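seq:
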Amino acid sequence: MDTLTISPSDFTTKIAFKSIQVKKVLNSSLGPNQVTPKFLPNPFDVSVTKYKGVPSISFSFKVYIDANNTSQLYFKVDKTNTKFCLEYDHAEETPEYVVEYTITAEYGCTSLHTNDEVTLYLMDTDPITSSGKKTTVQPST
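struct:
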């Protein structure tokens, strides 16, 4: 993905905590000497689904985050309802271990429809760095 400049102030609305489920996978495929200085967490296995007749969209994605991270994760949306961001605080040092998180969330939104494009970011708040993935809203099956 092309590099874009985003900041925490771009994401003004938090998606309710109760709608976010985080599952720690303890035996991550990334361990010692497999996390390189070029390692930048990216959202992966991203799916965004719109259910017919329901004014919301569902997110499901996975991310790798430093195993020593103790900060709160925040899932936010920008004012256009097309950019979503999982914020976290990541140490500047390359982590020795990472943990795989599976995130699922529901977001009430009437402006997004099937085939609309959204971008999902993973943003480190200190120092501010980000990576993202564009995806298309899919119909439910």
